[in-house]
Design goal:
With 390 residues, this protein is of the alpha/beta class. It has three domains: 163 residues, AICAR transformylase, duplication domain (Cytidine Deaminase, domain 2, 3-Layer(aba) Sandwich); 134 residues, AICAR transformylase, duplication domain (Cytidine Deaminase, domain 2); 41 residues, Helix Hairpins (Orthogonal Bundle). 34% of the residues lie in helices and 21% in strands. It has 13 helices and 15 strands. Strands 3-8-7-6-4-5 form a six-stranded mixed beta sheet. A five-stranded mixed beta sheet has the order 12-11-13-14-15, with helices on both faces. The two termini are 29 Å apart.
Amino acid sequence: MSTSLPLRYGANPQQAPARVFMKNGDLPITVLSSSPGYINLLDALNSWQLVKELKLTTGLPAASSFKHVSPSGAAVGTPLSDVLKKIYFVDDLELSPLATAYARARGVDRMSSFGDWIALSDIVDVPTAKLISREVSDGVIAPGYEPEALNILKEKKKGKYAVVQIDSAYEPEPIETRDVYGITFEQHRNDRIVSQIDFTNIVTKKKNLSENAIRDMTIAWITLKYTQSNSVCYAVDGQVIGVGAGQQSRVHCARLAGAKADMWRLRQHPHVLNLPFKTGIKRPDRDNAIDQFLQPDVTDAEKANWKEVFSESPQQLSPEERRVWLDGMSDVVLGSDAFFPFRDSIDRAAKSGVRYVLQPGGSNRDEDVISACDEYGMTMVFSGIRLFHH
């Protein structure tokens, strides 16, 4: 342990010197391999808080995939269907509960997770290390590593893969500070933990809230807490399926997250599962090809590039086929880090199978938003807790 860790540079190469340090006591992190950067450690410390809280509140192993200080995916270790195993490219692996959590977190938005920072709630086992070893990733933080798992990770990127261990018992001071333009900000840390009380104020006509819905609301609540605001996320089946982060307009967050949720669903279409990929195509190239294939406005020039990855040119889904398949998505949770000022986000959510909504409430137009949920037969909870994160 040490009080200071030097870094090559800060957020950009021209921002040097750089370091992380403790004003009092030792750093709660130990670098076991390579040397994480400034942004890596921002991702590491934000993502660690997310998975620590997910494990605490659900009792299940948790994982997150972070890029630029927001999660592209977060999940707990619930069992995977054969279809999800296939679209997450893990149908050839034996998965532990922790590996399953990461397969979900990584697999939901594989393009955004390319070169991610990984956070894991539990001691990293061999199945999880083997999964990480074959993905394009910058580093991982966890409370510990099995010896064989650590050896696997140390070999990744020819020894340049960042492996960080954090003291799971570490608790920061309640008051946090931040310097911006030479001025120091101070506030109480956002250390409130989600509780069952947060889901009791159901404001819609429909009042049903299943155990799975509460679990997914919990995942959405905690994910939003560590996502750059404004933020909206969609969650189902123990995982986030779409995140909209850092947008100035809430409906743009809802559209972005909804588009990602739709992409997740469309990737499960039988036609997509059976795309005629050439032998030897790497996973990132498949990810890019699937994403382009599912875009409705692909040009002929872009289609001409498909010959590099497909053995034959596939026929895209028609608008009608897309809509029918998307209509099969259900029981999705929509979470928002602050109130919905208009009903437009609810109208967008209805297109992506949302049946449950979690938001703080408090808008002058709350009644309009409640009425919209009633029209669609949704159950909406007012948590009363805003989750802005900057």
